[in-house]
Amino acid sequence: MKIGTRITVTPGTALALVALFFALGGSAFAVGERVQSASVAQQRCTNGSVRGVAVVTGDPSKGIANIPDQFTGTPVLFSRRFNCTGRAIQIRRVAIGVYEIRFVGNAAPTAVVGGLGGGYASADPARGGVFRVAVYPPGLSDPEDRGFIIVLF
Q1: Domain segments of the chain: what residues?
Q2: pLDDT band for position 117 (cuts 50, 70, 90)
Q3: If 0-12 CB within 10 Å is exposed, 13-18 middle and 19+ buried, where does residue 50 land?
Q4: What separation in angstroms does the CA of 10 have from each of 3, 4, 14, 98?
């Protein structure tokens, strides 16, 4: 292209640019609506839907090993959290690499859990809507204090 050359925009190009603008704007609006609605309690927690999510990382200034042995819902212990009941999510450390997590008021019977940073984890339902989570580093059989994600169904 030479300097000083005029760029001509055809009607088809203009229409495509307008469509692109609205398509991107609509996606951003949909994402914004989803994020906003995730923080508001749903009318009910239906079977087959995601009923809760928690990404447990521990306090960044203290580490995950400093999660207390009494249930707490301190927000700094989670990087993400969602409970379809709109109520609290609480966690406590039971032993090295073993945690109990409670989604208050949520009767979800099933949970899927995974370790963060290359580890793996297991979750077993306990009494009172609590799940006991054990987190393991890659290739080892003893639990280790590591972050994890849990999803309730």
Answers
A1: 1-40, 52-152
A2: confident
A3: middle
A4: 20, 19, 6, 64
